[in-house]
Amino acid sequence: MVLTQEQVKEQGRLHFEAIKTKQLVTPPSYLYPDMGYDDAYAIASAIVEEYKKAGYTESGKKVGLTSNAMRKHAGIDEPDYGIIFHELCYPNESDVSFDWFAQPRVEAELCFKLKKDLVGKDITIEQVLDATEYVVPALEIVDIRQRTDGPRKIYDTVADNASFGAYVVGDRPIRPYEVDFGLVGFIFEYNNHQKEVASGTAVLDHPANAVAWLAKRFTELGNPLKAGEMVMSGSAITILDAKRGDNFRCRYGKFGEVSVNFV
Questions:
Q1: What is the domain partition of the chain in residue ranges?
Q2: Pick from 63, 138, 146, 72: which is nearest to 107 by CA?
Q3: Which uninterrupted H or E stretch holds 40?
């Protein structure tokens, strides 16, 4: 690691403070150009500790930047990963406070509820499905706590806890073998205007592939995916900025729709 323990804690505190104050922080790679994944994940872990001190409890994990469109948008060529929280999980059609977020954006994805641990470096789609209790359509509210007026590295997005802000889950659970998740359709709408159409294949060719990738990465980190956790598998569509008063909706065909309002 390049950063000291004190620098890691300070970065975690500053990133968490930015959620409340909207005072954006400098991407850590600007300050520490030699930093690597260990430093980035240490900062993210410090952010998670700040959440816990504030009374939040972990509900699972997330993988981001899984679609080509998302990686191109971010200027980053590989996925990132982070921790999600129970208290930041909202029911379908929720009104959420715009003021809670620093730079909110919205994307659409599938969320896997695990019934078995997923541990290992060679996880298959079949193993992911076998370990899954159900899958539910979801929206993720991405919140970037860092300045975005210049290029960011993968280390910056990992350090920002993969820019997790909150997530909104749908009402229709899908059983693991009910459908080929690569064929699930996404019709994404912004303020009642259709913005993009995609399918699950946009997420690393299959959303369960994204969960398998995440299982490998968190196994390497010593914090494997566990039974009972929710796992956000990454967006199939390009991310959109959110403003106060905006409505976002994604229609998933026979699996229903998920929407959120910023108030």
A1: 58-262
A2: 138
A3: helix 37-53
